Structures are given as C-alpha cells and as structure tokens.
Amino acid sequence: INGGETLREGLEAAVNYRSDRLFMYASYALVNATFRNALEIASPDAPVGVACSAFVPEDPEDEVPNCARVQPGDQIPGIPRHRFKLGFDYWATPHWRVGGDVVAMSNQFFRGDEGNDDLPLPGYAVVNLRTGYKVTDNVEVYGLANHLLSKDYATFGTYFDPEGLRTVAGDPVGVGRNGTVLENPRTISPAALLAVYGG
Questions:
Q1: Rounded distance, CA 113 to CA 156, Å?
Q2: Distance CA 155, CA 141 (A)
Q3: How many of the other CB atoms lie within 10 Å of CB of 43?
Q4: How many CA atoms lie within 13 A of 137 on its CB side?
Q5: What are the φ and ψ backbone dihedral angles of 2, each rounded to 5 degrees?
Q6: For the whole model, what pTM was predicted?
Q7: How far is CA 169 from CA 162, 165, 172, in A?
Q8: Distance from C-alpha of 76 to C-alpha of 105, rounded to nearest angstrom
Q9: pLDDT at position 119, please?
Q10: 62 Cβ partners below 8 Å, 6+ apart?
Q11: Among 68, 78, 69, which residue's Cα sits nearest to residue 8?
C-alpha cells in the first residue's frame, strides 16, 4: 500500500524429457521485481537507511525514526532474482525408481531494506535424493533425503530491535551459555538441514 508503483516482470523457461525409463526436467525463472518511484518507507530496525523526512515529532526531543530511501529500480526485498531447478527420475527396473533434484536461488534483500543498502541474504542450492520400490499397484516403499549437502542457508531475512529484548529489571537479555547480548539486528529464517524420511 505504501510502496508506490511496483513492477514485476521476467521470464520463465522449462524443458522436460521422457523415455520409457527416464524422466528429466529443468526450469529457470528470472523475476525482476522493482520499485518504480522514489519514496521513503519506514524501517525502524534496519542498520541502514536515513531519518524519515516526513516525520513530525510531537515532542522535539523524540528520536526521528529510520526509513529506507527507495530509488526507482531498487529491488523489492524477499524475492530472489534467479531460480533454477534440475531433476530426474530413473526406473532401474519396472518397479524400482531412483531420482533427485537440485534447487538453486539467488540472493535477496532483507525485508526492511527496500533501499537495497545492506548486504543481501546469500543465495543457496539444495540437493535432494529419492527412491521408491513398487511392491504392488497400490503399495510403494520409498525413501527421501532432503538437503543432502547439509549446508547452512536461510530462506528469508528481516530486522528486529536488539534493544527491545530486556529483562524485567531493564537489562539486556543474554542469549546462550555465555549470556551473549544481541547486537546485530539482522535476523534470518534458517532452513532445515539434512532430513531423511522413509515410509
């Protein structure tokens, strides 16, 4: 609502191949999601940005909140520009199938960094494997291994106020064994590491 005019344009391409024993697919998407106007968007917890110019404090001593200064062409946060998928399924026998896929996303800006001034959330790639054995027409035994390489990555990033975490006495909240006080306002949604399923 307060983002002015935005534009989402791009392209998507996909190709599939199928034979008696092999199915393969690949897809690529380019999403150019940008702001079209120069504007300021409130971003109180971001470590980058500018003082909001439209803010009129009731009390002259009130602190001016932080805003992201957006220029036409800045990317909309939370939307990776590139997405790539590649996968296959191979029937080693008429009953036994093995397969896998790779999913890759490019970096994206943190929500709250509409001005694209901070370091983006890094891109990532995930490798998954699967297999299945058809016992009967209605029963299949299967196994899945998701995120086979088990590398740390995150799917979303935003900011929070580290100063907002206080004890009842007003002291900073300590986190972890050593009571580390949080100082970095960048927060992420981490993805699950290696997961293996069967059924």
A1: 12
A2: 31
A3: 27
A4: 0
A5: -100, 15
A6: 0.83
A7: 16, 11, 9
A8: 15
A9: 95
A10: none
A11: 78
